[in-house]
Design goal:
Layout: E1 11-14, E2 18-26, E3 29-35, H1 45-67
Antiparallel strand pairs: 1-2, 2-3
């Protein structure tokens, strides 16, 4: 894992087309702005994990349906 320090309004760039900017810092929370192409999905980790669980559940259901 790469760990970087950034101040408010400073950015990091991932690849050629993803920019992450520190928008605000309040106490122990940091607000990030993310610029990415529309074809690149951007999710909070807990949302991403929920999507993965739902896909797995659907895949298991599809396998059970085709086995019958």
């Amino acid at each position: 894992m790469l760990v970087l320090s950034r101040h408010r309004d400073e950015s990091i760039i991932i690849g050629d087309n993803i920019v992450i900017t520190v928008v605000d810092i309040r106490g122990d929370k940091v607000r990030l702005g993310i610029q990415a192409p529309t074809e690149v999905p951007v999710h909070r980790q807990e949302v991403y994990e929920a999507i993965q669980r739902e896909r797995q559940t659907q895949a298991n259901g599809d396998q059970a349906a085709s086995a019958s």
